[in-house]
Specification:
By secondary structure, the chain is an alpha/beta fold. The chain is built from 13 helices and 17 strands. It has a six-stranded mixed sheet with strand order 2-3-1-4-5-6, sandwiched between helices. It has a six-stranded mixed sheet with strand order 8-9-7-10-11-12, with helices on both faces. Strands 15-16-17 form a three-stranded mixed sheet. Strand 2 and strand 3 form a beta hairpin. Helix 11 packs across helix 12.
């Protein structure tokens, strides 16, 4: 499972800005006023080969004066309990405060590894902070600028120091587990646990009509048609404003870990409710990790026949940003369409782990270029030469060429669709990485061009001098040295 790193500190020290920098997103709201972040925010981060879950917390108020401030403090304490590593964020410009000391004592009592991050340190000698913040009693501290990203990568690497690198394409829930891992995600009460029970053929997990029955990610191993599977039943993710139970709040991190550990993700939707904001948020998490994605529209048996076409059209319109994800209309309670969903999950797993040879990829790329050439950039054509596979789960294809950084997003999508169709990458997002090859003669050519330019300037200067001398001799009546015609 992915390690959890929590960002802790007093209000308005830059935790949310640091969260956005570490996760490469804008999920956390950033403002210059304290108390903007109240609930915990979760996202994915990475330090080298080590992925992790980053948790943004509200500011710790030493003496809460309101119910909201007390709840913010409680949320932070829960984040500390569930985290594996902690980062204490302080404001370098404001200096050490009494609240910083209180938060430091809170982290010391946790007994977990802590790294000190002195934020807003751009343009200041790090030695200035050393003496002041050394009083907090932490061995490691880093001067960072969360807004510009200065020092943030080294900070996260230090926080995750001692953990082994994880190959996400081969990540295992268990050391001897070679099964297909399928994470079932979605909002509360859409039928996730009922679907899990239907897939395995027994009442393995509790399923009720009450939302929030499942509190943690439950791993259920089983066999079907000679294949080994591990189903991961996750807790429903609701809007933070509606999450009141402390245990349910802690389950969000487990859901993120389940997505990262899975080969295939099944997003369960309620046919009666359509696509909601929470569904799009959970879907974004699965897309961020690049997992093979299946959409299961549950409770389809309850939709009248004359309304089904309208529901299909509405779902297709709302889900047009994930055209590669097939939609299955099922009834988890009665089993309608569940068998087809299981077969689709196997097909998606095989596609996500497919091996593609370099000659095959390069041949497909050549045909794609013949059918539709890349656009011109400043009068020059983008040249894409060859392709090879760079990873699995998700399928990663690396393309080499010239001016690849100028390739527009529309052409990238075109290439992704071509590769997906050519190699039957069913339900998989195709990750393209375009690299510009270094020119081995680039430095020599640049020197020769500069030399030619310098020689041309010298000759032009000599001609100009000769012309001025000739004009001067003509004006004074002196012979110019030219023979009369």
């Amino acid at each position: 499972m992915l390690p959890i790193v929590a960002l802790v500190g007093r209000p308005n020290v830059g935790k949310s800005t640091l969260f956005n920098t570490l996760t490469g997103t804008r999920d956390a709201i950033v403002a210059d006023v304290p108390g903007v972040t109240r609930d915990r925010q979760y996202g994915y981060g990475r330090a080298g080969d080590i992925p992790c879950v980053v948790v943004d917390t509200g500011g710790v108020v030493v003496s809460p004066r309101s119910t909201v401030e007390q709840q913010m403090r409680d949320q932070t304490q829960r984040a500390i309990v569930e985290a594996d590593r902690l980062i204490l964020v302080v404001d370098g410009r404001a200096g050490l405060t009494a609240d910083d000391r209180e938060v430091a004592r809170l982290l010391h009592r946790s007994g977990k590894p802590v790294v000190l991050a002195v934020n807003k340190a751009e343009g200041v000698d790090p030695g200035v902070f050393a003496a002041e913040f050394h009083r907090l009693g932490f061995k490691e501290w880093y001067a960072i600028a969360a807004q510009s990203g200065q020092g943030c990568a080294a900070l996260l690497a230090a926080a995750l120091e001692g953990l082994e690198a994880i190959d996400e394409s081969e990540q295992e829930v268990d050391a001897n587990d070679d099964s297909i891992r399928i994470a079932v995600i979605g909002r509360p009460n859409v039928g996730k646990s009922t679907l899990v029970n239907r897939l395995i053929g027994e009442e393995r997990v509790i399923a009720t009509d009450l939302p929030g029955t499942t509190r943690d990610s439950i791993f259920v191993p089983f066999e079907r048609d000679g294949r080994r599977f591990t189903l991961i039943d996750t807790a429903g993710v609701r809007r933070r404003a509606r999450v009141e139970d402390a245990v349910e709040r802690a389950s969000v991190a487990r859901t993120l870990q389940a997505i990262a550990a899975a080969h295939v993700v099944i997003l369960v939707l309620d046919a009666h409710q359509g696509i909601a904001e929470q569904d799009a948020s959970v879907l974004g998490l699965a897309l961020q990790k690049g997992r093979a994605l299946l959409l299961a529209v549950n409770k389809w048996d309850g939709i009248p026949m004359d309304q089904r076409e309208n529901v299909r059209n509405s779902l297709a319109l709302r889900l047009d940003f994930v055209p590669f994800a097939p939609i299955h209309y099922i009834s988890a309670r009665h089993g309608t369409g569940v068998g087809e969903l299981a077969g689709a999950a196997v097909r998606a797993y095989e596609a996500s782990m497919r091996e593609m040879s370099t000659p095959q990829l390069s041949k497909v790329l050549e045909k794609a270029l013949e059918a539709h050439q890349p656009p011109l950039v400043k009068g020059r054509r983008i040249k894409l030469r060859y392709a090879h596979q760079g990873g699995r789960n998700p399928p990663r294809i690396i393309i080499h060429g010239n001016q690849t950084q100028q390739t527009p997003d529309s052409y990238r999508r075109y290439l992704s669709n071509v590769f997906r169709e050519a190699f039957d990458l069913y339900a998989c997002p195709v990750v393209l990485e375009l690299r510009t090859d270094a020119n081995p003669f680039g430095n020599r050519e640049q020197r020769e061009a500069a030399e030619r330019k310098l020689q041309a300037k010298k000759k032009a200067g000599q001609r100009n001098v000769a012309k001025r001398v000739s004009r001067k001799k003509v004006a004074t009546g002196k012979p110019t040295g030219k023979r009369p015609r």
